[in-house]
Sequence to fold (471 residues):
Amino acid sequence: MAATPRFRTEISEGTDRKHPVDETLPPLKMFTSGLQHVAAMYAGVVAPPMIVGPAVGLTAKETAFLMGASLFTAGIATLLQTLGFWRIGARLPFVNGVSFAGVTPMIAIGKDRGHDGIAVIFGAIIVASLLGFVLAPYFCKLVRFFPPVVTGTVITLIGVSLLPVAFTWSQGGNAGADDYGSTTNITMAAVTLVIVLALRKLLRGFLQQIAILLGLVIGTLIAIPVGITDFGTLGDADLVGFPTPFHFGAPQFEIAAIVSMCIVMLVCMTESTADMLALGKIVGRPADERTIEGGLRADTLGSAISPLFNGFMCSAFAQNIGLVAMTKVRSRFVVAAGGAILVVLGLVPVAASVIALVPLPVLGGAGIVLFGSVAASGIQTLAAAALEKGENALIVATAVGIGLIPIAAPDFYHAFPEDLLVVLDSGISTGCVVAILLNVAFNHLGRKPETDERAAGNEQSKDPVVLPVAH
Fold:
């Protein structure tokens, strides 16, 4: 059995001291830190509906409605994760939003079908999410197959897989635009990156913790005279709007669409499990089976509720894990404040438009730091994974190599069936599966239980935040 992590005893002995995850901060600090999380995830939340809407034949106004609904439902899902009730919610500073994994299959399901296409997508998401909710207690038991050699690999892949998103933002976000990759866009990203690094170096205390938010504000102000800040969305936005339930009609249920979204749900559950393990290590509260079960239930329940308010499938947002790692603000109530802000943004479109003023090149500059922090956390975990023992180095090398295929060669799997691309096009999912299978093959099969743990690099170090492994 793995030793009990020291942080649990240190916190519980002799005092009523709360774990930093359960601490509440002063209102101003809570709001600004929560807003920083929203700023980091905003583009990721609105991008899927921005892509899917036109693909299924929705008008610009209907697509904007989808974007507002996605913000609203992301807020609900985040509140479920952070605050929780019963056995639902990881109760970690865990941000949920619209999953990119579902974009390609959703387009395939609803392409050029208008409201009917959206209704079929929503029906498939509801069924897949309810199935995921039922599977959560069983899926969470896979935590035993996530020792440091696996979690370190997956965390590193999460960070590396997100970096191309930051690079795309830094170039302008839209590959079809005339100014995509222009020196102006890339220079703005570089300026923002330097500003964030300088603020982290020069500031202290709370101001240092919100360096990302300050960097985004300063970068946006600089971008105004440069001419890359778009105020058009602010003028077109309604003051108040509610995502009316079943705005596009009652959900429709088609077998092929349901099967496709069930695959997406399994991918999302795999990524969320890896993200919870990563976040648990970063905040010093390792995620055990019960935590992962609660987190997966919140993921799937949030996804099941989301279509009722015209939102898509929700899952973990890894970029916010990078923000937690960088700022060291571990309170789940800070992220809950961010969830509340998302709900407000979904109800007040004009407020959402203010956040949208941040140009993508500015967001890309900050994203390099955020996503790089996740990769750095993975490398730190691998340092404790006993790579010199057995075939652990080979496991990492193979899993990282295969996980990088969708990034380094995006068309590598172009001849494969579209249903398989849901998994294969996610370097996080493929790398995770390969790392788990190789770890089982090299460190479990044919080994005695007492040597299995040492070979897998699972020994508990004296560091109180090293991830314990369930047996």
